[in-house]
Design goal:
The chain is an alpha+beta fold. It contains seven helices and ten strands. A hairpin with a 5-residue loop joins strand 5 (222-226) and strand 6. Helix 1 (2-11) packs antiparallel against helix 3. The radius of gyration is 61 Å and the shape is elongated.
């Protein structure tokens, strides 16, 4: 009996104390403290009921009903029900929403700016301008390439096709060879039948076509070409000549035909190369023809 009264006292504090708690804070805090007191009171009652039920079961003693005192204006709480007016986290969230101050995030607005159409338009204009500049640069480059190709074609046409002086031959003597026919050979000897075509290795101007001149004593009928780099080439012992003085020729142009004129021991073309400033026919100023032919991409068999 004494323990039940103690439980009742703990569940229901003296009425004279409530006004002190209530007067501490106004408004929502006052209501919150009141609800807290009610919750504590409910827990006390529950504990009391449980203890009472246990005591009745064990001791089989009938107990009188527990009377609680509640602050005026506050409904007596139940063990299984909560006062809907009690402030909770859910109610507090709803209150914030009702105030109109809650922030409602729009995911679409965050992922797609309001001026996206304007941004896309600027990007489109920038891309269009870039493509226009690239197209213009490409066109200029194409024009340069076409111009360069035309120039190269013109040069190629002017130079003609690099060609060995005689296409079908047997090389019987090289520069510097010594034999019964010469103390020191000053060129290349291409042995071929009389009438075999003789071609200009590259473009040049005919400086001499015929006999006589500096090489007239030994070369017979011969042709001298002067080339763009100042080099001069001499073609001796010809049976016929197909060009004339001052004529411009290109690579592969027919100069005449193989013969045996002048001092020759058989039909062949004697071919010599003279550097810039040298006199064609002055055999002691002639140089090896092979390096000059190699520069033209021509190699001997």
């Amino acid at each position: 009996m004494q323990s039940q009264r103690a439980v009742a006292r703990r569940a229901a504090p003296p009425e004279r104390r409530w006004p002190e708690y209530v007067r501490l804070v106004p408004g929502a805090l006052n209501a919150g403290l009141a609800a807290l007191a009610v919750s504590v009171l409910g827990l006390g009652v529950t504990a009391g009921l449980s203890s009472t039920s246990s005591a009745q079961t064990t001791d089989n003693i009938s107990q009188s009903a527990i009377v609680t005192t509640v602050v005026p204006g506050v409904d007596q709480p139940s063990e299984f029900e909560r006062d809907s007016s009690t402030i909770s986290r859910s109610n507090f969230r709803a209150a914030l929403t009702d105030t109109g101050k809650a922030v409602d995030l729009d995911v679409t607005a965050l992922s797609e700016p309001a001026d996206s159409a304007q941004v896309d338009l600027h990007a489109y204009d920038a891309r269009t301008a870039l493509l226009a500049r690239e197209s213009k640069a490409t066109t200029k480059l194409q024009q340069k390439l076409v111009k360069a190709k035309k120039k190269a074609d013109a040069v190629k046409k002017a130079l003609g096709t690099p060609t060995l002086p005689v296409k079908s031959y047997t090389l019987v003597a090289r520069f510097g060879d010594v034999g019964a026919w010469a103390r020191y050979h000053t060129g290349l000897d291409f042995s071929a039948p009389i009438g075999t075509a003789i071609h200009a290795p590259t473009a040049g101007v005919v400086e001499h076509a015929g006999s006589g001149g500096e090489a007239g004593g030994w070369a017979g009928s011969y042709v001298v070409l002067k080339h763009a780099d100042g080099t001069q080439t001499l073609y001796a012992h010809m049976s016929s000549i197909s060009v004339q003085d001052g004529q411009k020729v290109t690579g592969g142009k027919l100069l005449g035909h193989v013969g045996q004129s002048g001092r020759a021991f058989g039909p062949h073309l004697h071919f010599e190369v003279y550097p810039r400033g040298a006199e064609p026919g002055d055999v002691y100023t002639a140089v090896d023809p092979e390096p000059w032919l190699h520069k033209l991409g021509l190699k001997l068999r």
